[in-house]
Design a protein that fits this description.
By secondary structure, this protein is an alpha+beta fold. It contains seven helices and eight strands, in the order H-E-H-E-H-E-E-H-E-E-E-H-H-H-E.
């Protein structure tokens, strides 16, 4: 189920996410927490334990009943927390303390197409940029290292508009950048079969 990244991933390596789970283009928040187990992550990001669910489809099904849910499952040395709608993974107030002594990365795109890619290290905000607009906070330039990483996944950060196929591939590109940065790649087997610990943020 775990896949250690040996070669750089591109957005094309994650096109399966959108084809198998088309609803993710309406909103998906994915948080990677190094050196923390799923229960620790759920306790930090939510206020109510709701048990477990199988796979991303199970998390999404529960989301129809509880829109503010997050599911977390272990993948290598990282815990992956996934939320169809809950925004806890982009909360500086929550992620700073969770990142103390470790690293946290979140990429997201919501129903209004607001996108973000964030990294916290040891209690400090380290990276923020918008992978859709390809800019930093307040239209500042993207961090140079992440412009290189975006280029590596097949998206030119210096170009505006969609790729030649007419799509922006923000979700796929963000999964690829996260895989290359963390060294751990989310696989179809992980999203379909992992047991996610579930919590509610409300």
């Amino acid at each position: 189920m775990d896949e250690i990244v040996s070669e750089a991933k591109t957005y094309r390596d994650f096109e399966w996410v959108v084809s198998e789970y088309p609803w993710v283009e309406n909103g998906l928040f994915v948080t990677y927490v190094r050196d923390a187990d799923p229960t620790t992550v759920i306790e930090a990001m939510t206020v109510e334990d709701l048990g477990t669910a199988e796979g991303l489809s199970g998390v999404n099904e529960l989301g129809w009943q509880e829109p503010s849910i997050i599911g977390a499952a272990a993948l290598g040395e990282w815990t992956i927390a996934i939320a169809p709608m809950a925004i806890a993974g982009v909360s500086d107030e929550l992620m700073r303390p969770l990142s103390v002594g470790r690293e946290v990365l979140t990429h997201s795109e919501d129903v209004e197409s607001d996108a973000s890619f964030l990294v916290w290290k040891d209690g400090e905000s380290a990276v923020y940029f918008d992978p859709l607009l390809r800019c930093g906070y307040g239209l500042d330039p993207m961090p140079a290292a992440w412009k290189t990483r975006m280029r590596e996944v097949g998206i030119d950060p210096d170009e505006e508009g969609p790729l030649p196929d007419g799509e922006f591939h923000v979700t796929e590109g963000s999964f690829a950048m996260a895989a290359n940065y963390t060294g751990t790649s989310i696989t179809p087997e992980f999203l379909s079969a992992a047991t996610f610990f579930i919590g509610n943020t409300d």
